[in-house]
Write a structure and sequence with these properties.
mainly beta, five-stranded antiparallel β-sheet, 2 helices
Amino acid sequence: MNIKPFAVVSILALFLFSCKKEKDDNTLPLNLNISGLEDLGPAARYEGWLVVNGTPVSTGTFTVNASGQLSQTSFDVDRIQLENAAAFVLTVEPFPDANPAPSEQKLMGGDFSSSNAALSIGHPAALNTMFSTATGKYVLATPTTTSTTDELSGLWFLSLMTGSPTTGLSLPALPAGWRYEGWALINGIPVTTGTFTAASGSDGAAPFSGTAMAPPFPGEDFIMNAPAGTTFPTNLSGGLAVISVEPFPDNSPAPFLLKPLVGNIPSPAMDHVTYNMNLNTTSFPTGTATR
């Protein structure tokens, strides 16, 4: 049988169209519109998950550039799974990632209502709080040194309003996969004061403090081992006191995008004076997932 070339092309095109149509019939796009995310660096990725009958189903990973733009905003996923999804959850994952399950670092979530899921960190599957009741106080002092000339070189998240040191932070408990971390902005450079899970008790490290006993609260004296771009002792006047929420484990030395409490340190500042911090909801990402 002699089949004309045009007929061969037509048959092939029909076959390819049929295959494409079958593939398209089995998938639907999930579209993400999220603002407030930051570049995670080369060792981490964001990953989306559908919650289908209580089981997480990956929708794919993406990165975010320095301008906050997602590398990908539309993901082809299984039609049946997407139609039956009850919620969408966004996680922070290590890269490369050998574990097919979601990490504990669940950043945002939202329940589907018809075709949309409004995403927030307050979703029960994520951090389960919007930090609306969080409060913070701090003082400048250097309890780990005997000098009286370096008192503006220490930042401690405590209160002296009663005359004795008391807890300066009121923060909600974090789910697994997250830690609080304190920061001082010194000459435009964020320098850690240590990570912690409770507002009373010492934090996890004291790399810059002196040798004397520190109070049992999160904080740090900036006395030794100054990072590049800083000189210790210093004067924290005019800087910032920050409480962030960090992934745990944390692959970055920089503050994570969640900064629920921020305090502008006065200039000039006074030592052993209790200063208040402010709620910083502008640091929280928001968005929608649309099916």
